[in-house]
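W.,

You were right to be curious about this one. When I first looked at the sequence I had no strong expectations either way, so I just let the prediction run and decided to look at it fresh. Below is the sequence, 405 residues in total, followed by the output.
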Amino acid sequence: MQNAQFTTDFDSKIASRKPYNFGFILSTSLGNLTRYLNFRKYAERDPDVNFVWAPVKHYIAPGEPDPFRWLPRPLYTRAVVFYQSYPVLRRMRHLDAVMIHMFEAHILAGLRKLLFSHPLIVSSNDNAPVTNRSTHPLYPRELNKPTWRQKLRLAIDLWRERQSDLFIPFSSWVGGVLVNDCGISRENVHAIHVGLDLDIWQPVSRVQPQPGARAKVLFVGGEFVRKGGELLLQVYREHFSDRVELHLVTKEPPLDLPPNVHLYTDIGPNDKRLTQLYAEADMLVLPTTAELSPWVLLEAMASSCPVISTDVGGIPDIVRSGETGLLIPKNDRQALTAAIQQLLDSPEQRYAMGQRGRAMIERDFNAAVNVPRILQIMKDAVDKQRVPTGNRGLLSTYGRRSEVG
């Protein structure tokens, strides 16, 4: 069983008495799988840290024992998350710090924090508490929740953030909400995206388009409607169907596609076909209505492909409008049309944006650089909390949480 394997691995490592013992409870759903794989690959190169990992996939895979199959759906999902978080949760007293990117596990760690001051709780999320519904990039399932549920969830989110010691959000947008709206001390917030594995995303040599050739516009988004696919398709029908090839990578394909639209429904993360599509595309267009920190923008930029997207959530952290791509307001058909037209009319601008995008990825979104930075921030926080003797081994005792906390 996977959980037992994680526990056994950590039991054998803990005897080595390395300077630090860190646990990680990380989601592996959708794009978070890429984050987990990148983080783990480069983290485990650190010789000073013992690691215990709890990847949470939110379901029990076929063939795995499922002790919760009799539970109703809402309870089932929560139970599975706790079950998959268990390798870290059961070892909390041995850990110096625990990074959490799971709501349920964060709640449990917060409750434990009321009694014990260790380990340090590191909150690491791509989303922020919904303090302002008019500006927050709410997903469709959040739009129609009753007011009492909205207020309850915000109260819980604010409480669990207050139980955290350190914050390493994916974007400055999340960091800004934590500091400005939630009252978190700025010195405890470090916005760092894990970044891409550039061993996989190698530089792309772009070929100049042939005169008269159709430009290739790429859309990548599992949820076609939320990601702005319908708006893009409408703009394509009205303005660009006679001069553009539109390539749609999605799990929710629309019906009645017009000519020169190519559909891909079986492409997953890091698929070589997706890498090829990025390399051949003249631009990636993602006019999403609700987004946090989409990996597809990073992947396109790593492929020297200019991007068009919306100025929501953490996207402005990724796309520098006018430099590596263009940002437009969400649901703005006229702005989307103008942005596509601008890049179609200027191959030189597309090329320059693509080159700057690749340089930005190498500088700011390289997992080989960012993961060690994240680990160092965690180490520094642990060192500040350790006993005055300077003991860099495991803390043997855990006092009750002080009033200051």
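Here's what jumped out at me. The first strand starts at residue 20 and ends at 27. And, maybe more interesting for your project: Residues 267 and 274 are 7 Å apart (CA to CA).

Coffee later to discuss?

I.
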